Each structure stands twice: as C-alpha cells, then as structure tokens.
TrEMBL record:
Top-rank lineage group of the source organism: Bacteria
InterPro entries: Bacteriocin_Proc_Enz, Nitroreductase, Nitroreductase-like, SagB-type_dehydrogenase
Name of this chain's protein: Nitroreductase domain-containing protein
GO MF annotation, one: oxidoreductase activity
Nitroreductase domain boundaries: 64-242
Length: 245
C-alpha cells in the first residue's frame, strides 16, 4: 500500500521530471494560499462537453429510495450530453453571484478541492475511446495520449469493472491540503470523494444510468500508467453505463 508522505512540509517531486520533458506531465495553475488549484493537461486533444442541461424534475426522496449499485451494463457509450450532465452536476463549477465567489457542487475542506477526475471511455460513440482528464474550470475533457485506458481497466479486480463503458477515477493531490490541514488533509480528501460519489449516484439515478462505486484495483500499476508523481494518488472509482432492463 502506498504511503501519502504526510507529516512533512517538503514537497516531493516525481523523479520522472528529471528524465522526461515537462510536457508529459500536468501543470498546476494558481498556487497562492486560499485559491483553487487546477490540473491542466495540454499535450492531447480536448473534447468540448455540451452545456449542462436542467436535471429531470424528480422528488429527492424518490431518487434516494431508488439509489442502487447496478452493474449489468450494456456495451454502449453514454451519450455526450448525459456525460456532461453527470460531471457538471456532481462536481462542476459555477459562479455564486450573491457571494461573489466560484463554487462547486460539493463541499471541500477549506475550499481547497484536492481531487482530480479522470474519465475512461471504452465504447465507440460521441467521444473516441481513451483516457481523459476532466477540466472542471472549462468543463472539457482533456485526452491523455500517454495513458492506455485498456491497461487501466485491466487493473480492476472485478469483471464487471473490466467491461464497464465508462469509468470515472478520482485522485487525491496532497499538496493542496497539507499546508492548512497537515495529516488531516488526506482524510478530508477521502470524505470529499464520498460527497462527489453520492452526487454521481443521485444524478445517474435521475438520468436512468447505472452506477457502481468501487475501490479495488492494482494501484501501483495504475499509478505508473498515469505517470502520477508522489503527491497524487488514485483512490476511488465509479463505473457507469446503461443497464439492461
């Protein structure tokens, strides 16, 4: 099991930075205390997501009672419009005019937002199959040409995860929390993953899309495949797809 490297103020750097060109790796924008940090991948092509639509008018108590983990997925890609809705209403960003601030759909300790979102597309459709990073600030997908989506999918321990049409993976970026929260930061990050996961469940249920959260995978292999440094760690995944009736 990997150690997050907590309890130190020293920022650990990935040794690969000394070997490969910097363009292979993400660049952080922002960086001052109290501001949001975004990871941006610029090497691959981008996919513009449609503007999010208003969610169906359903009673919250009804959606909560219908919430289930479903895994009998059809071999069909989720429509781009619905993927846009899922991502935006679960973790998207919006301007709060009254507070004069930028907010997201989920709470975050100190508004540090230490999680990054990766989207694996595995069926042909509106979006080419492959691995993508969800750029929250621009509401776009950034293709990661150096990551094999199939290799990532083979890291999962469950057969239903290895055949899922869409896999959303979350990583924790330690440096965004460490200065303010120290060793508490990673716990707050894990809780934040749960907040987003519940949002995903409720939005998916309202859109009649199957969903199941999982945690088991070969993390060492996946971490290497993503070329993540010592400050970023995958820890939580949600698989999605249309389900057979």
């Amino acid at each position: 099991m990997r150690v997050f490297g907590l309890g130190t103020n020293k920022i650990m750097r990935d040794p690969f930075f000394k070997i490969f060109e910097k363009k292979f790796f993400p660049a952080l924008s922002g960086g001052t205390a109290g501001t949001q940090l975004y990871t941006v991948y610029t090497r691959g092509a981008t996919v513009a997501l449609p503007p999010p639509r208003q969610l169906p008018s359903v009673l919250l108590d009804a959606v909560l009672r219908r919430r289930r983990s479903r895994r009998n997925f059809l071999p069909e890609q989720i429509k781009k419009e619905e993927l846009s809705d899922l991502l935006y209403w679960s973790m998207g960003e919006y301007e709060d005019s009254q507070a004069r601030a930028t907010r997201r759909m989920h709470p975050s300790g100190g508004a540090k937002y230490p999680l990054e979102c990766y989207v694996g597309i595995y069926e042909k459709g509106d979006i080419n199959p492959g691995m993508y990073h969800y750029n929250i600030s621009k509401h776009i997908l950034e293709h990661l040409p150096f990551v094999s989506a199939e290799n990532i999918r083979r890291c999962f321990h469950y057969d239903f995860a290895q055949t899922a049409p869409v896999v959303i993976s979350f990583s924790y970026v330690h440096g965004r929390m460490q200065k303010k929260y120290g060793m508490l930061g990673y716990k707050l990050g894990i809780l934040e993953g749960g907040h987003i996961g519940q949002n995903l469940y409720l939005v998916a249920e309202s859109l009649h899309i199957g969903i199941s959260a999982i945690g088991g995978m070969d993390y060492d292999v996946a971490h290497s495949e993503f070329c993540l440094g010592s400050e970023e760690h995958l820890f939580y995944h949600v698989i999605l797809g249309y389900c057979a009736q």
